[in-house]
Model the fold of this input.
Amino acid sequence: MTETYEVIVVGGGTAGLSAALVLGRARRRTLVVDAGEPRNAPAAHMQGYLSRDGMPPAEFLAIGREEIARYGVELVRDTAVDVTKGEDFAVELASGRTVRARRLVVTTGLKDELPTVLGVAERFGRDVLHCPYCHGWEVRDQAFGVLATSPLSVHQALIVTQWSKDVTFFLHEVAEDDLTDDDLRRLAAAGVDVVPGAVAGLVVEDDRLTGVRLADGTTHAREVLFVAPRAVPQTGLLQRLGAELNETPFGAYPVVDATGKTTVPGVWAAGNAMGFAEQVVNAASGGYRAGATINGELLMTDLDAAVRV
Done:
């Protein structure tokens, strides 16, 4: 069965729901394809979103789904597995259904690949964290650890000192020689203790982090561990359509204009599908811009076509 819409939004997170809300209110027949795998699912709360600070992500998304439904937007729990472009876009879903639309919004986000250290995955989103802007206030003044997986981890170790002055930087996969003189001077100025050697695992007591254990058996008492997951952008659909990608230290993301429009005519990207650092509030904004731009473009396209008749 093939069904036709004006716009298909692939991804039912913040960016996708925001775009769908604008399009629904603009009376565009819109479908949201939601695989149900939000990046922030491990987090108990989200922060930094004015008027929604501290709200559980699942509650936020549930409200968003209710809001788009008011304007006739359809949402299907499915996964887009392929897309082709002819006169319009044909999106193949895992269920076997094929849906078509004149415009496409890709908000498939990214996945976090966590360091393979014993205990990290189990504690992620609780006392193993990655973003101090998301969780720093809640763990302020506790004993922090930072797990280095690349020289870029120095930046993370320096940033978290805004929330705690008790910070230990575990070099783990980084050699001391990989640190520049500027790195060492800044770490010293920030009061960060630098500990060489690989980390073997976490020490957990009574369901809370109490320490970081090195491969040599030594243990350092810590209450919070910051890590830097490897970002894996979910850009498969964009690549199938031939979108130009831009290589960054955090993965390859589509080249977009200020509205999120990609190099493929008729295709927009928003949220973490277009960049590593898009927080929830940024994703909502990006989805809004994409939705409004698409509505205007469709309107002008149809008017120009009518003029030519």
